[in-house]
Amino acid sequence: MNGYYPVMLQLRGERCVIVGGGRIAERKLLGLLEAGADNVAIVSPELTPRLSELAAGGSFQWVSRNFQPLDVVGARLLFAATNHAELNRLIAEEGRHAGAWVNTVDEERGRGFLNPSVVRRGDLLIAVSASGASPALSARLKRELERHYGDDYEYSVERLRMLREHMKAAVYEPGEREALLRLAAEEVPFQEETAFDMTTWITRLRAKRLED
Ligand SMILES: C[C@@]1(CC(=O)O)C2=NC(=C\c3[nH]c(c(CCC(=O)O)c3CC(=O)O)Cc3[nH]c(c(CC(=O)O)c3CCC(=O)O)/C=C3\N/C(=C\2)[C@@H](CCC(=O)O)[C@]3(C)CC(=O)O)/[C@H]1CCC(=O)O
Ligand SMILES: NC(=O)c1ccc[n+]([C@@H]2O[C@H](COP(=O)([O-])OP(=O)(O)OC[C@H]3O[C@@H](n4cnc5c(N)ncnc54)[C@H](O)[C@@H]3O)[C@@H](O)[C@H]2O)c1
Pfam families, alphabetically (predicted)? Predict the structure, then answer.
């Protein structure tokens, strides 16, 4: 047992605080924005050029000074991402007391959460983690997965969702819907130019089911 539990969090409206404005803070911020986080603050006297640009564009709130304990108030996710290990430990401690989930960028075994490497293809999200044993391996496996699961998966998953919604609204004999949806998942990936008519697709899946 590696001691970690994976979840998918919805961050819209949730307060996320990053302490530190360097290279690692930038990576964490970009990950949050990609996930739709819209209530992010960065506490740091300095920012990378990219973070400065994003701050100017209103992507997050910049608290332009050194960390103060009050910064953790109301945070659901907190990132201790400065370049001072002792300070990161203190930030993490403050965060835990305030009830936040804490990520400490220089200490994998602290209580809290880790960030996995992520491949996004629309609604498909593939996350890889080595639980802190080797972030380099996670990043390598991500690159391999990116090559294997190309952009056609975004389109494919969109189609699978449409099929599923369509089938949920219609009446099927017990077990049939599940069986057809499993068969449809086997057909992925679809070429983007493939035109789908739900009725034709379902007829084809039914025929396939009978063959199996
Ligand atoms: C996956 C990814 C996600 C992200 O950051 O968003 C991520 N690190 C990434 C890359 C990366 N990080 C490091 C290298 C250099 C090679 C190496 O060390 O292996 C590379 C490789 C590279 O840059 O290619 C150095 C490093 N990382 C940590 C420490 C501190 C320590 O271990 O104590 C040190 C040493 C610092 C030092 O020496 O000073 C700690 C953590 N890094 C984690 C996540 C968590 C564990 C996740 C897991 O094991 O899967 C954890 C525990 C906490 C956290 O940060 O959440 C992101 C991939 C981005 C992508 O997808 O491309
Ligand atoms: N998790 C990972 O994947 C990973 C990878 C490499 C390094 N690291 C670790 O992450 C740490 C940060 O790396 P970096 O490259 O972003 O460093 P960096 O030097 O680029 O940035 C550090 C940031 O912390 C800010 N800071 C310093 N004191 C502060 C304070 N009192 N209050 C608020 N902000 C303060 C600085 O202004 C700067 O913006 C490294 O020291 C290293 O231990 C983690």
Answer: NAD_binding_7, Sirohm_synth_M
Are the C-beta atoms of residues 75 and 90 closer than 8 Å to each other?
no
3-state secondary structure of 125: strand
Task: State the ligand closest to the CA atom of 114.
Answer: 1
| CA 16 vs CA 45, 133, 191, 193, 210: distances in Å | 18, 26, 38, 40, 51
What totals of helices (H) and strands (E) does the chain contain, helices first? 7, 7
CA 53, 54, 60, 62: dihedral to nearest 10 degrees?
Answer: -20
- Quote the pTM value: 0.95
- The residue among 133, 145, 141, 207 whose CA lies nearest residue 176 is 207
Its sign, for the CA torsion 162, 163, 167, 170, is: positive
Q: Cβ distance 115 to 90 under 8 Å?
A: no
- Dist. CA 190 → ligand 1 center (Å): 34
Instruction: Give the SS3 label for residue 128.
Output: strand
Nearest to 168 by CA among 181, 150, 152: 181
Evaluate: CB of 140 within 6 angstroms of ligand 1.
Answer: no
| Tens digit of each residue's pLDDT (9 = 90 or more) over 79-124 | 999 999 999 999 999 999 999 999 999 976 666 999 999 999 999 9
